[in-house]
Design goal:
By secondary structure, the protein is mostly helical. It has 3 helices and no strands. It has one domain.
Length: about 90
């Protein structure tokens, strides 16, 4: 691991994952409730639990993808900073 990767790994995220988790749970519950409203019926507790779990899993996968993109973006910022410094000091 080079020093840029170490620094990227140690940089504080601007996103509070506890809040993201709460939001994901809220989105999953709301989505199921909205579906039940549209079909004018209530899912069984088992179906509701399965639906909420599947929605949450899909949303957490998206969050993981965004975290990877964030690391890639930060790596690009470090590269640009290095290039800019090189232009100034050369």
């Amino acid at each position: 691991m080079n020093s840029n990767e170490e620094k990227i790994g140690s940089m504080q995220s601007a996103v509070d994952m506890e809040i993201v988790g709460d939001n994901i749970s809220d989105i999953a519950e709301f989505t199921v409730e909205k579906y039940e409203f549209r079909i004018d019926s209530t899912l069984s507790p088992e179906a509701r639990e399965k639906a909420v779990a599947a929605i949450e899993e899909a949303l957490w996968k998206r969050v993981a993808e965004l975290n990877l993109l964030r690391k890639q973006y930060l790596a690009g910022l470090f590269s640009l900073a290095d290039e800019t410094l090189g232009e100034i000091v050369d």
